[in-house]
UniProtKB/TrEMBL annotation:
Protein's name in the database: WRKY domain-containing protein
UniProt organism field: Gossypium stocksii
Region (Disordered): 137-160
UniProtKB keywords: DNA-binding, Nucleus, Transcription, Transcription regulation
PROSITE patterns per the UniProt record, alphabetical: WRKY (PS50811)
Record SUPFAM superfamilies: WRKY DNA-binding domain
Predominant subcellular localization, coarse grouping: nucleus
Cellular localisation: Nucleus
InterPro entries referenced in this protein's UniProt entry, alphabetically: WRKY_dom, WRKY_dom_sf, WRKY_plant
GO cellular component terms, semicolon-separated: nucleus
Coiled-coil intervals, chain numbering: none
Domain WRKY: 79-144
Superkingdom of origin: Eukaryota
GO molecular function (one): DNA-binding transcription factor activity
DNA sequence: CGGATTTGACCGGCGC
DNA sequence: GCGCCGGTCAAATCCG
């Protein structure tokens, strides 16, 4: 029964979950990362997240207590930028220095009204090139940048 | 001018 | 009970 107690996740959890490790690219991809389309991940029924294409592994955590039934996903990315444009609009609401990690952690929230999705981004302790991103909650709305649902005449993003 | 950032303060949970 | 630690608030500020 005590196993559910500590299923919170640590950075170390990512290290043992290589999903696609062959996707190693030089740091030069930093700029193009923003424009890259995302992968839709549905590890749990009813849950859906948009991940960048070059993620290297992810962890899905089941929430407990009040938020029981909801899920949280964390993934690890090799990137020199922390803020990745995943199509949603994020409003930053906090920054915190975490123990055991010299790099600060950033807290974001979806700007959409009524959308309580949260996102937290932190750089890995040792390897500065790795970024850990965590999504929490479900979106109230569709991805505004989802190309499939865009009106036929409009193309604000991805237009080279 | 309206909305996003910034940044320290505040607060609640947990472990000792 | 107290202090550490992580998460959020909110006021000032910035920026397009």
């Amino acid at each position: 029964m005590e196993l559910n107690r500590d299923d919170h996740l640590d950075v170390e959890d990512f290290l043992v979950l290589p999903h696609l490790e062959t996707h190693k690219e030089p740091a030069a991809t930093c700029s193009s990362l923003k424009a890259k389309p995302s992968i839709t991940l549905s590890p749990v029924n009813g849950s859906r997240w948009d991940l960048p294409r070059n993620y290297e592994g992810y962890v899905v955590e089941r929430m407990e207590g009040e938020d029981a039934g909801k899920f949280k996903v964390s993934f690890r990315t090799r990137s020199c930028i922390e803020i990745m444009d995943d199509g949603y609009k994020w409003r930053k609401y906090g920054k915190k220095k975490i123990k055991n990690n010299p790099n600060p952690r950033h807290y974001y929230r979806c700007s959409r009204e009524g959308c309580k999705v949260k996102k937290r981004v932190e750089r890995e302790r040792e390897d500065e090139q790795f970024v850990i991103t965590t999504y929490e909650g479900k979106h109230n709305h569709e991805n505004p940048a989802a190309a499939t649902s865009l009106p036929p005449h409009q193309n604000p993003l991805g237009y080279h």
